Amino acid sequence: MTSTFPDISLSTERLVLRPLDADDVPALAAMMSDEQVGAWTGVPQPFTEDTARTWITEYAPAERAAGHGLDLAVAEFLTQRLVGLIRLTRTNWHVRSTELSYIVAPWARGEGYASEAALATAQWLFGDQKLQRIELRTAADNTAAQQVAQKIGCISEGVLRNACIARVRGEDGGWSEVRTDYIVWSLLPEDIEGADGQLADSGGFPGYTDWN
């Protein structure tokens, strides 16, 4: 039975999803240093180019090799500019499930890239990888990330109370941690049927300007 994700590339109408490489170091460092990424994710802050290089050359390959997950760079098809990151974590190969999350660079928000990349990843996971469940967790106040989950067909399953650590900027410019709830979403193979049509009916892949 498969216990690791392959090194793959996926294409959509506007995007290429591929493994991270050394050329992504500056763009990854800039994206991960954004205020909203710092607030809603647990990535190290400050996120330097050295941190980005370690992530790309050591952390991400080790996570994939161990069977825990997969990081995919999301780049514009025409320009090859890095617009975001899709992350698969907490993969359970016996249950055939994984947790999906997404980050988009500040300059690329509002273009619907999150929905497009997440949907393509889900279709690949259910089709080629034969997964049976994808889980998403969004902070209770991260309403735009929740909209992306809804857009690709996810079903809200409930709330994990007090389970999320978010971060806020203090007056001194430093980060402090605050507790909030997680909303848990799931996506099953049958949920994704018609997701392409729903996105098309809404005018393509609508963007959300205030998420991750």
UniProtKB/TrEMBL annotation:
Origin: domain of life: Bacteria
PROSITE patterns: GNAT
Pfam families: Acetyltransf_3
Domain N-acetyltransferase: 15-171
Protein name (database record): GNAT family N-acetyltransferase
Origin species: Streptomyces werraensis
